[in-house]
Design goal:
With about 90 residues, the chain is α+β, with helices and mostly antiparallel strands. It is globular. It is built from 2 helices and 9 strands, in the order αβββββαββββ. Helix content is about 20%, strand content about 40%. The strands form 2 sheets. It has a 6-stranded antiparallel beta sheet with strand order 1-2-3-4-5-9, with helices on one face. It has a 3-stranded antiparallel beta sheet with strand order 6-7-8. It has one domain.
Length: about 90
């Protein structure tokens, strides 16, 4: 896991602000290149690819440790199942 991902997820989990390079946390959400990809909600998190199935987006999402986001034959996969990348609740 990249250091920026580790620091950003830690900030998100603790409700702190964080900014480094292309990643921003406002305390409740994690943004990559200005796109919200993780948000804290009651009982867990919501995640999305925000239309960007990139290595960096998947790496930031995987930083939560609650999910495994990957790609198989160009198709996004969430915990081993095909995923359209839309907002999904996880706990």
């Amino acid at each position: 896991m990249r250091q920026v991902t580790k620091e950003a997820v830690e900030a998100l989990e603790n409700g702190h602000r964080y900014f480094r390079s292309n990643t921003f946390v406002n305390g409740d959400s994690l943004f990559l290149h200005g796109n919200e990809i993780i948000r804290k909600v009651e009982g867990g998190y919501e995640i999305t690819l925000a239309g960007w199935n990139t290595t960096t987006t998947r790496e930031r999402l995987n930083g939560l440790g609650l999910v495994r986001v990957s790609t198989k034959n160009g198709m996004p996969m969430l915990n081993g199942k095909a995923w359209n990348g839309d907002w999904t609740f996880i706990q």
